[in-house]
Every structure is written in structure tokens, then in C-alpha cells.
Amino acid sequence: MILSRQKPATCIKVNHGIKKAPKMPVLDDFLDKRDYVGAITLLEFQRRCGKVVPHLNMWIAYCWFHLADYKKAYAIYKKMIEKTDCDPQALINLACCCMYLGLYDEAYTVLNTPQQDNFSILQSRLLFHLSHKLNKERNMMVHMSRLEDIDDKCSYYSLHFMRGNYEEAINSFKHLLNLDKNFAALKVYLAMCYFKLEYYDVAQDYLSEYLQQHPGSVLCSNLRACIFFRLYNGKAAEAELRS
């Protein structure tokens, strides 16, 4: 008897039925999609499994911050800076939380600790705004001298907005947008200025352009809800917030 060299049909079916195991998501997958809830869920799962993740607490606090839960981010950074081997970046991040929580004096103190002698770009911007909030005009000018690139100029021009000079802010942000057409965040700043001037249609146009590129922005969703409230009614605004 000559045996067939062909594989049995049952084997072929079994091989065809094999499925690849689903790929385990990584942190960057969630961050790229701005899915900060998913990122926190992954990090907490890895913590429970005992997996060593570099800067795990820093990443969790980062995600809470971008979810606008500044109190939770603040609490994590606060614990981190109590350690002797604290990452200096945690101090700057803590100051960011303080800024959003209105704790200006604490933020200013944190940024002027001995560990923070070498000023980073973010630190200079924070100190510039804190000096303005605390009416430290001389210090504000010192920190303003350290502002150089286009992001720094945004910090400087934002003073026009905070002081209610919305038309000056619009001219400044449009100038920067002409220099860098890909700087999408400038469209949000322009939308905020036009909203303050009650040009709601123009504000909505700028906001729509930004949301086409970044549809998951919480700030933009809130601003668009405010625009809908002004243009239409409360139900339209509520529907936007729920969408």
C-alpha cells in the first residue's frame, strides 16, 4: 500500500482555524489617541500585575492632568516630591497643577526651590504667568526675556487675552499662524478670542478646523457647547456635551 503524501483534510482545517492572539496594547497606543482613561486603566493593571513600568506614577499623574482632574494629579506629584530622589520634572508638573488649581503662591515657591536652578522652557513660561498673577512685574520681565520660540510667544501674547485685549490677541495669534500653518492650537486661541468678542460664527469656524484634526479635545467640546448655547439654545449645548 502506498500512503498518500497529502496532509489529511482535518489537519488543514485545524491550521486554518488558528487565530493570532490579540496584541496587548501599549501606553503609546492610548496616548496617541488621547485616550487617557484607557492609559490609566492599562497602567493600573500593570501595577497590579507587578510589572515594572518606568515612571509609572508620573504617567498616571500626567493622564489625570490631561483629563482636567488636577486634584488627583496634584496628589500624586505631591507624594513624589517628598522622596529624596525625586525627579525634578515632578516639581514642574506639580507647579502646573497648582497653576490650574489657583494655588499661585505654592506654584511660585515650588518653581523656585534649589533643585530648579537651571530653568527649563516650561518653567520659564510658568514663572512668567505666575509673576503676572502675583503682580510681580519686575520678575515677569526677567522671565519674559527667556521666552524665545513660537510657543513662548504664545505665552506672551496670551497676556492680551487675560487682560481683555482680545483684538490685540487676535492680531498676534494670526501673525503666528501665518508663520506656522500647522500650529493647530492657535485656532483654538483665536476661537476663544472671537467668542469673547461675541463673534460666535467665526469662533465656531476656527474651532471646527481644530476639531477635524483633534476630535477628542475636552476644552474644545466645552467651548463649542458654549457657542451652541449662544447661537441656539441650552438643549443644543447639552447635546454637544453629551456627544
Explain how this protein is built.
- With 243 residues, the chain is mostly helical.
- The protein has a domain at 165-243: Tetratricopeptide repeat domain (Serine Threonine Protein Phosphatase 5, Tetratricopeptide repeat).
- It is 69% helix and 0% strand.
- It is built from 15 helices and no strands.
List the helices and strands and how they pair.
Elements (H helix, E strand, L loop, with lengths): L8 H8 L10 H6 L3 H13 L7 H11 L3 H11 L7 H14 L2 H8 L9 H13 L3 H8 L5 H13 L3 H14 L5 H12 L3 H14 L4 H14 L2 H9 L1
Helix pairs in contact: 3-4, 4-5, 5-6, 6-7, 6-8, 7-8, 8-9, 8-10, 10-11, 11-12, 12-13, 13-14, 14-15
In short:
The protein has about 240 residues and is an all-alpha fold.
Total count of strands: 0
Q: What's the SSE pattern?
A: HHHHHHHHHHHHHHH
**Count of alpha and pi helical runs:** 15
- The structural class is mainly alpha
What is the percentage of strand-forming residues? under 5%
Family: Belongs to the IFT56 family.
Pfam family, one: TPR_19
Keywords: Cell projection, Repeat, TPR repeat
Subcellular location: Cell projection, Cilium
Give the key terms.
disordered N terminus; cell projection; 243 residues; Serine Threonine Protein Phosphatase 5, Tetratricopeptide repeat; mainly alpha
